[in-house]
Every structure is written in structure tokens, then in C-alpha cells.
Write a structure and sequence with these properties.
Layout: H1 2-28, H2 35-43, H3 57-65, H4 78-89, E1 99-103, H5 124-129, E2 156-159, E3 162-165, H6 175-179, E4 185-189, E5 195-196, H7 204-210, H8 220-224, E6 230-233, E7 236-239, H9 249-253, E8 259-260
Antiparallel strand pairs: 1-4, 2-3, 5-8, 6-7
Helix pairs in contact: 2-3, 2-4
Length: about 260
């Protein structure tokens, strides 16, 4: 019986010592957490998409609390989240303009053709990394879904072999932008109407051989633009959205219908 009592006492003492040790270690290495950080984390959407430039919402909340990130730095949360974060941080939140993804390609099955039949992994990255001559246009959408598979809002569909973004469903997280191996997707202002649906920088003749609606760099669009928002770089029209007024005159004159408005 005495051995049982001794064992019980020893176990009890060990437990007390372990408890004291844990309390000491906890106090020794205790790190105060800014209450604002926790509050900011509560209002962030929790997508952990990394579109803000940080590893996730926890890292973003810490950066905002430390003053390293702006209160409107979450592109997914938009104006509503920016206002709440601003109230927590005690600063005015100038909401960032909403942006959505746009696919710079209109090379559908009607306008271009596949060079070879492909029976491999249904992933655009596999085609590009493997150097597979899948389609005539080396700059066009492959339509195998690398962008749609990472879209958290299911905002990307395919029409005749080309990815199309539902701008109403898109939250502008940018994951599709990062995942497109041909860099065809960009984030554009939600209100932007005039857009170039081509990414082929080759000369006109080469473009027309592979796609009926590719930009040929004719510069008719630049001559129509009164605000100087359109330039032609490497035979490809590009729009400066900060200057564009969405007048649509460039789209009206585009002979290839590469520009939409």
C-alpha cells in the first residue's frame, strides 16, 4: 500500500513541476498580440488566396496592424472590408477600385484551329512545359483549364475552346493570372469596357495565318484614340486603362475586331 502512495505522490509532484515549468516557459516566451490584428483578421474574407501579396489572411492582418500594409489591401474584400478595417485601425479607407480577370484571347475554334490532337494531361502547363505544338497560335488560350481549376468562385467557363471570365462572379484574387502559363489573363478595372482580346506580338501576316481575329498592329486604333490611351508595342495594341475613357472609337475602327467595347 505504501508503494502505491509513494508512486501517487511522485506522480503528483512531477505533475506540479511540469505545470510550473509550462507556466514559466509560457511567460518567458509570451508574445503580446495586437488586439487590432485579431479584429482585422475577423473581418478579412478568409480566402487565403495571396492576392494581397501576403501568404494568407493571417499574414495580411499582421501586416496591416503593423502598418506595413494598407487598410484597403485586400482585393477580394473590396470597399466593404476596407471600410471595416479602416475603422479598426482608426484611419480613412480609400477603397481600391474593383478589378476582375480578363482573358486576352478570342481565338475560339471558329477563328483558329488546333495543330495536333492532344491526349495528354488536361492541363495548359503540361502542354507549355512539354513544348507540345497544340494550336496554331503559340500565344492563344489552350482551353485546358489551368485557370478555372484554381478559381475559388467558379467564375471561369470555356466557350469554343477559350476561357471566358464572368466579371460579376470574379473577386479579382488573381490566382488565374498566376496559373496561366501563357500569361493571357490580366486584372482590369471592373468598369473597363474597351479591351484588347489578343496577346500575339507577331507581325500582321503571321497573325492572320493563324487567327482570323488577332491584332495585326495596324495602328488604326491609336489614330482614333483622343486620350492617347492606346499604343502598339511589338505589333500588339495595348491600352492604358488610366487614360482610357471607354469611348469605343478604337473598337469601331479595328478591322480585326480584336478590340471590344
Amino acid at each position: 500500500m505504501s508503494s502505491i502512495i509513494i508512486a501517487t505522490v511522485v506522480i503528483g509532484l512531477v505533475g506540479v513541476l511540469v505545470g510550473i515549468g509550462l507556466v514559466y516557459i509560457g511567460n518567458k516566451f509570451h508574445v503580446d498580440v495586437d488586439e487590432r490584428e485579431s479584429a482585422v483578421r475577423e473581418v478579412l474574407p478568409g480566402n487565403n488566396c495571396g492576392a494581397c501579396g501576403y501568404a494568407g489572411c493571417d499574414a495580411m492582418a499582421a501586416a496591416i496592424a503593423d502598418g506595413e500594409a494598407p487598410v484597403n489591401g485586400c482585393p477580394v474584400g473590396g470597399a466593404a472590408v476596407a471600410e471595416k478595417v479602416g475603422q479598426i485601425m482608426g484611419v480613412s479607407a480609400e477603397a481600391a477600385a474593383r478589378k476582375v480577370a480578363f482573358v486576352r484571347c478570342n481565338g475560339t475554334d471558329e477563328h483558329t484551329s488546333k495543330r495536333n490532337e492532344y491526349y495528354g494531361i488536361q492541363d495548359c502547363r503540361a502542354v507549355v512545359l512539354g513544348g507540345i505544338p497544340y494550336s496554331n497560335c503559340a500565344y492563344g488560350c489552350l482551353g485546358l483549364g489551368s485557370c478555372s481549376e484554381v478559381c475559388p468562385e467558379n467564375a471561369i467557363r470555356f466557350r469554343n475552346g477559350v476561357a471566358v471570365v464572368n466579371k460579376e462572379a470574379c473577386v479579382g484574387c488573381g490566382l488565374c493570372v498566376k496559373n496561366c502559363p501563357r500569361h493571357l489573363i490580366e486584372l482590369v478595372p471592373y468598369d473597363q469596357k474597351v479591351l484588347v482580346r489578343c496577346s500575339n506580338p507577331e507581325k500582321g501576316k503571321s497573325v492572320k495565318e493563324n487567327c482570323d481575329v488577332g491584332c495585326i498592329g495596324c495602328k488604326l486604333c491609336t489614330r482614333q484614340c483622343e486620350s492617347g490611351a492606346i499604343t502598339v508595342d511589338e505589333a500588339l495594341a495595348r491600352i492604358d486603362y488610366s487614360k482610357c475613357t471607354n469611348c469605343g472609337k478604337c473598337a469601331e475602327k479595328c478591322p480585326q475586331r480584336s478590340i471590344i467595347a
